[in-house]
Amino acid sequence: WGTDQQTRWEGYIRTGASIVDAIIWAGLKLTNTAVITTDADQVFFRYEEGQNSGKWLAVDSIGNTDVSTDSGVTVAVSTDYHIVITIDSSRVARFYINGVLVRTTAALTNAVDFIPYLGIEVQAGGAAGAKVLRVRGQAISRVVA
C-alpha cells in the first residue's frame, strides 16, 4: 500500500464502554505499534487517555520527522467513528474523521509500502484488563499500475 499509488484506507470503528487507560491507533504504518516515534514513515490516528485533552491525533512521520496534529475531535465511549486516510498522486495525505478533513500533510516519502493496522492496548502504568475496540469494517484501495 504505497505512498506512490494513491492509496485510500478507511476504518469504521466503535469505542468500548470504557476508554480508561486505553491507547487506540488505526491507519498506515510500518510496524504494529502505537508508539509515534517507532516508524520513520507513517500516517495514522491515535488516541491515548489523558493525552491531548482526550482528542484524536492525526500522526504523520515523513523521513523520521514526526508530526502529531490535534484533530479537534474528542474520543467518547460507545461512539462510532469513520476514519479515512487518503494519499493523492503528489503523495499528500489527508486525514478525515466522520467526513471532516482534520489534517493535510506535506508530500510523503516516495514509494514507502505501508501496512494497515487497527489496535488497542493498555497505556503504560494503566490498569490491566480487557480493552474493547469494535471494528465494524475496514477497506483499502490503490491505483493499479
Descriptive account of the structure:
The chain has strands at 8-15, 22-29, 42-48, 55-62, 65-74, 80-87, 92-97, 100-107, 115-122, 133-141. The relative contact order is 0.33. The protein is globular, with a radius of gyration of 14 Å. The protein has no helices and 10 strands. Strand 4 and strand 5 (65-74) form a beta hairpin. The chain is mainly beta and 145 residues long.
SSE map:
Layout: E1 8-15, E2 22-29, E3 42-48, E4 55-62, E5 65-74, E6 80-87, E7 92-97, E8 100-107, E9 115-122, E10 133-141
Antiparallel strand pairs: 1-6, 1-10, 2-3, 2-9, 3-4, 4-5, 6-7, 7-8
Low-pLDDT runs of 5+ residues are: none
Beta-strand level of the residues, as a percent range?
over 45%
Q: Which range best describes the helical content: under 10%, 10-25%, 25-40%, 40-55%, 55-70% or over 70%? A: under 10%
The major beta sheet can be summarized as:
5 strands, antiparallel
User: What count of helical segments does DSSP give?
Assistant: 0
First-last Cα distance: 12 Å
Query: Over all CA atoms, what is the radius of gyration?
Result: 14 Å
Number of strands: 10
The overall average pLDDT, rounded, is 96
Order of helices and strands: EEEEEEEEEE
Strand order of the largest sheet: 8-7-6-1-10
> What form results from the Cα inertia axes?
globular
Structural class determined from secondary elements? mainly beta
